[in-house]
Amino acid sequence: MNEYFEILMVLIGFLIIAVGANRISLYFPKIKLPIITGLLFIGILSGPYVLNLLPKTSIEKLGFINEISLAFIAFAAGAELFLKELKGRMKSIKWMTFGQLVFTFGISVSFVLLMSERIQFLSEMSFEYKLAVALLIGTVFVTRSPVSAIAVINEMRAKGPFTQMAIGVTVIKDVLVIVLFTICFAVADALISKIPFDFWLVIILFGELCLSVLLGFVLGNLLNLILAIRIYTQIKAFIIVLTGYSVYLLAGLVHHQSMEWFGFDLYVEPLLICILGSFVVVNFGKNRREFNRIIELVVPSIYVLFYTLTGASVKIDILQEVWSIALIFFVVRLSSMAIGAFIGGTLGGDPIRYNRISWMPFVTQAGVAIGLVAVVSEKYPTWGPEFATILLAVIVLNEIFGPPLFKWSIILVGESHKQRELQHENKVQKALIFGLEGQSLALARQLADNDWNVKVVTRNEVKAKLEYQGVNVVCVPEYNLNELKKIKAHKADALVLLNKDDDNLKVCELAYEHFGTRDIVVRVHERSFIKKFHELGALIVEPSTVMVSLMDHLVRSPIATSLLLGMEENQDTVDIEMQNPELHGIAIRDLQIPTDLIILATKRNQNTLISTGFTRLRLGDVLTVVGSIDSIDKLRLKLENSEMPDFKKIRFPGKTISFKRKPIDPDTDLPS
Q1: pTM of the entire structure?
Q2: What is the 3-state secondary structure (H, E, C) of 616-627?
Q3: Could you tell me the pLDDT band of residue 663, with boundaries at 50, 70 and 90?
Q4: Is 319 exposed, middle or buried (0-12, 13-18, 19+ CB in 10 A)?
Q5: Residue 283: partners with Cβ closer than 8 Å, 6 or more residues away
């Protein structure tokens, strides 16, 4: 009873540290470091070698948190292996995966064997020991982080064959590397235990692998049954977490009782079971979306617990002695990946410009790699801590340098479609309307009334020379890149496309590929074009259905629809960019705004957040506001200006943002 009470007290203390680590780690991206690095760093500070908030005895009692975390990390990795999304580039993915697995693994194992005499904990070991450790290190070197890869792709809005190949190889390789680890772990155990290699040992290893695969498919069906139950998602998430932990308990039971049951040692790999179970759910189950939602709900908390505890387990005294070895391992891993990627890409028939940089997407490591290191460290306590300390240092280096390298490779192959950042200055918004007709002229006048700089673009030279009551009309002979740049389409904040679908698609593709225009609005005539425009991120208006949809909303929600359309007298709906540095970080509930205003949503980094009183403003946020025109003007004055000099520079990590003050007339602009 006392033992369980001690574990409970240690767990409560660790949870308090983890909450603090979660908050502090959010500041690390501001200095261009990943959040995971922040969690590891706080864990190291809390560990027995610095502040001793988590003594060695406490860390040992928290081993079950590692097992819970590893099971769910495996679920997250398996959920990325959605086969329907990988069909298009299977040849390239197949050969690149082959190159990464075979050459990265082979070169890494060979190098570790050559360097073994200079690695302190390996120098006095027998050749069998050295080979076992080299196999395990080579397996860890092959791992990649699907989560960080997806984060970079989303940030860069990357799209194209190179990006598709990178994400395909990443998710497939994570499954195969668990299979490879299962085999190497069993072989390493046999080498260390000095079990002679014979036909019977091969049968046992093959049987262990088949049993792990079978249990993985059983687990997948069990997860499908859990997801089919009609209960709250949070309860399902809790049950799935316990199910993952039960896999580790089952693996431990089989491992410890197999000698008594079968007469030989039997080991099933829980990571492989969990990753295959997740694979079954996302590819053969009916609840893939809910399963992904549960993963998104639980994974952030799992990461906080796992990485904080992992950081606390790092042996600082060992790290001081082996940092040079860790740096060499980092360089060797990059070199072996470059060789493997080049050979794999060449065999897959990829262009040479891809093959030269095709190693860059696979540098980053995170959950799975650290999980494998934790498994080895726990299995072999005599030399495991030194093994873990060296490889954790390598993983941290990969986590720091990996994302920038992946971003650079996306830019080099021309598959980045990142939108231009919002301009933190009081500038006039610019719009181009393609198509000269009554609706385009009416829209131009309405935007001009709201202080937009608008041009209407046409290819009819005769009509362009006529006067249109203050509307600026320009003529272009063709819709190509040079002509669009001449009319400064690349500097427009919004494009409105009202021509034929073919012409609209041509302009939309040019803007998507070369300009990064934030908002593109398209009027579509034929439904066959809707998917094409949707893939390019355009906002689509379909005349055949828009009127019916509008009337439907007017019938079911007349007040809200009238407000959004600006049909109510003296009411409007606008987007306002937050540019006042003095309000950066303030909660909306602490912002003094007119009582007849409602802030509906906040758009931040291409993500739309439903605003609450606790939402904190950030520079560059775009607030969607509904209210009276006078009150909107007062809020705009508050957010877009501040009591500061006419010109001021605000420094952030890595960049300087300039703010220019707009002159204010105290008699007309200030609220009464």
Answers
A1: 0.56
A2: ECCCCCEEEEEE
A3: very low
A4: middle
A5: 81, 82, 83
